[in-house]
Amino acid sequence: MLDVPLDYQNQTSDAPRAYIALMKYPATDPKDYKGMILLNPGGPGGSGVQFAATMGPIWSDATETIGPIGPNFDIIGFDPRGVGFSIPSANCTYSLDLPIGKRFDQPNGPILDMEGFARELPEIEKLLRSAKLCEKAIGGSDGAGQYMSTATVARDIVSITDAFAATSDGQKVKNPKLTNYLGISYGSFLGQTFASMFPERVGRFLLSGVVDPDDIVTGLPMRHLQSLDETFAGFFVYCSLAEDGRCDYARGDSPRDIFLRFENILARLDINKARANKWKNVTLIEEVLYTMKKTIFDAAYLPREMFPKVAEGLLSLEKAMNNRTPFEELEDYRNRLVAFKFPQEWYNGNMCSDQNGIMRNVTVQEIWPLVSTLQHQSYIGGDVYLANWFACLGWSIVPKEVYQGPFGGPTETPILFVGNSWDPVTPIYNALKGGNIFTQAGVLTVNEPGHSVWNPCATKKIRAYFKEGTMPGSDNFCIGTEPGQGVFNTTLKVRLEENEAWREIVQRLRELRLKSWKAHT
Q1: Would residue 485 count as lying in a domain?
Q2: Could you tell me if 249 and 237 lie in one domain?
Q3: pTM for the full model?
Q4: How high is the pLDDT of residue 103?
Q5: DSSP-assigned letters across all residues of 308-351
Q6: What is the pLDDT of residue 111?
Q7: What is the reported pLDDT for 361?
Q8: Given 7, 105, 226, 287, which is the most exposed site by the fewest CB atoms within 10 A?
Q9: Greater confidence, 277 or 173?
Q10: What are the DSSP E strand ranges found in 67-211?
Q11: 75 pairs with which residues across the strands?
Q12: Which residues form the AB hydrolase-1 domain (predicted)?
């Protein structure tokens, strides 16, 4: 634990203190010791302590295509304010029993139009009540709620770095006052905030799965899902190439054939038709469609690991439809995809603080354009992603400090941004923007689907950046055709974007998206 001021604006002797939980995976080759690298796994609300414990042994591997950090650094995970083991904890235990607190885990049905939106109003009312209760639980002057903004966490990073600089290990490093950092997803927003607030303290900064900071502080998801449908389109190409039964949904079919089967599932889950004909099972159809989309959305984060589960789920659903049996099987497969979950207030406390109350008093009429924007971005994720943006409705805890820009400018050390060509929630445009607004920053593109997914090519270049400070320069594109590195252990013969079937499927998903959007606006 690191003892820090609870409120950096009040550092009197009798002021309350906070304690930041830290976990170190030590350098395994201390002969060429290079200091420490701080990690943030994203969320917001992810535990850096758990992340370091899990990834430390892998990321410190001496093999340059396996370990992006290598054996010469201490890998340090920390739990941000209110999260995990840090004190005080943002723990509103009552809220975990509310349905709205489980939106990321359980299908509550899609919000496809104003009628569907109206059905969610009781859940929104519960969310508003839980926000008030949470204010009482953690919103006081000695609670976590007022001090969970990214600006406060950035100041904690300065404190962690200063504490390291004062140690014997810190004295071994040329400039221990510079922070080395690896941030993923929300961690990239934390990194950009830190670099904008403390540019003189930036060491080697690797930001992956890059978030647009302006989207965060304005509360408007202008581009979040732009690449999600393209990410999913890759499933059909990889599945068609899979050998030895690795893709359960394949039958020796072409990508187009597999997609036609998927479209047949969609045709039988036509909510508009079910409503028009007043089918008795319209609610079941809504829930099955939502569950299928949620399964695909979750899997798109880690296609190599999770697309095989999508194949299982689609096959199960197809069989259930053909046999006219219930659809419970799909729920079983969806549950396998649920990643580590953290309390909703860990997410809310940080995200809502950074928005600085933008969503606090928003009306239903004002929310609807946001719903429409997300639906227009993605057929798969437009409905699913809404839970993220409902989270801050009614959140009434006012943060002590918020940094809302400007973002960018010169830094002591150039930042390296990394993005996937097809990322379900942080499109490559965000990394390119980061490379443009920060002076001398570099951008590395990983030409594969997934959220902050690296291949051996990318891992090697990240390792060179951390070890020697070497930027990719013009060699900044990892092509994604390495043997056996594709989903289902496949090998692409041509780049995904050059695959004619992939382009056709992307276009078809766009048509589905437009059709759905027009039907519900």
Answers
A1: no
A2: yes
A3: 0.89
A4: 31
A5: HHHHHHHHHHHHHHHTT--SHHHHHHHHHT------HHHHHHHH
A6: 41
A7: 74
A8: 105
A9: 173
A10: 74-78, 179-184, 202-208
A11: 25, 37
A12: 37-233
pLDDT tens, residue by residue, 108-150: 344 444 455 455 566 667 777 778 888 888 999 999 999 999 9
SS3 448: strand
Indicate if 77 and 198 belong to the same structural domain.
Answer: yes
pLDDT at 15 over 60: yes
**Domain containing 163: what range?**
2-9+20-87+145-217+405-478
In terms of pLDDT, which residue wins out, 456 or 123? 456
Determine whether 361 is exposed, middle or buried from the number of CB atoms within 10 Å of its CB (0-12, 13-18, 19+).
exposed
Residue 465: name the closest of 181, 197, 77 by CA: 181
> What pLDDT does 110 receive?
44
On whether both 302 and 451 belong to a single domain, the answer is no
* Counted domains in the chain: 3
Distance of alpha carbon 184 from the chain centroid: 8
Domain assignment present for residue 397? The answer is no
Per-residue CA distances from 504 to 236, 425, 508 (Å): 11, 22, 6
Query: What strand order describes the sheet that includes 442-449?
Result: 22-25, 74-78, 36-40, 179-184, 202-208, 416-422, 442-449, 477-478
The tens digit of pLDDT for each residue in 81-100 reads 999 999 999 988 643 333 33
CATH number for 412 = 3.40.50.1820
Q: Which DSSP string corresponds to 66-95?
A: T-SS-TTSEEEEEPPTBSTT-BSB---GGG
Q: Residue 418: beta bridge partners?
A: 208, 444
Residue 472, preceding peptide bond in cis (omega within 30° of 0)? no
Do residues 82 and 98 share a domain?
no
Q: Is the pLDDT of residue 388 over 90?
A: no
Tokens at 95, concatenated: 């809220």
* One domain, residues 61 and 27: yes
| 411 inside domain | yes
Q: Of 120, 159, 154, 118, which is closest to residue 19 (Cα–Cα)?
A: 159
pLDDT score of 289:
86
Say if residues 317 and 297 touch (Cβ distance below 8 Å).
Answer: no
378 and 282 within one domain: no
Report the chain's mean pLDDT, rounded to a whole number.
86
**Whether the Cβ atoms of residue 170 and residue 35 lie closer than 8 Å to each other:** yes
3-state secondary structure of 187: helix
Residues 6+ apart with CB under 8 A from 23: 48, 49, 52, 53, 76, 77, 78
| Token pair listed for 138 | 């953690």
Q: Is residue 271 part of a domain?
A: yes
